[in-house]
Amino acid sequence: xxxRKSSRSSLTQNTGRGRRPPDKLDxxxxxxxxxxxxAAVHLIQEANVPPEKIHILEKLAVAGGGTIxxxxxxxxxxxxxxxxxxxxxxxxxxLLSVVPSRTRKGKTARDDIVEFGSHALNWTSHTRLLTRRxxxxxxxxxxxxxxxxxxxxxxxxxxxxxxxxLGRTRIKDHFNESFFRSNYWLTLATT
Length: 191
What we know:
This protein is of the alpha+beta class. Helix content is about 40%, strand content about 15%.
């Protein structure tokens, strides 16, 4: 496997048949998720493709794919599960260190994640669902599924049936109201 230095020089110097120098190349990337943004950063840094030659096509209004969470208390929130990208070694940290922060000049995406994580992720790292309580927002513990015995039996019966046996029934045909008030259902319905 060639080293980074040798592969970079071959990209910039080899202009033989079928190869173009990076500044004569247009790159089109479909989607603006983390993988696409990572590809764009590596094309800029490792293959010397000028940023203006990289075109990212996205149908949504905001880049970032499944990592974007946004909103406010008046209009509501759009939180996608798994919104905080995990640090998976030095490669991820290095990548996030070259991506500028969307909101803070002179900071990087890595700075935003680390600083946010130092005060918020400790409390929310195991939180999937929040509820309004008299003193503010409260955490719903997903490990406390609060399914009664009858709900558990109905769940077992339903998952034991073949798909054909279920026919065109609806989920409400298989469970009592208590099931739909459980944390189990809340977690399942919001996945």
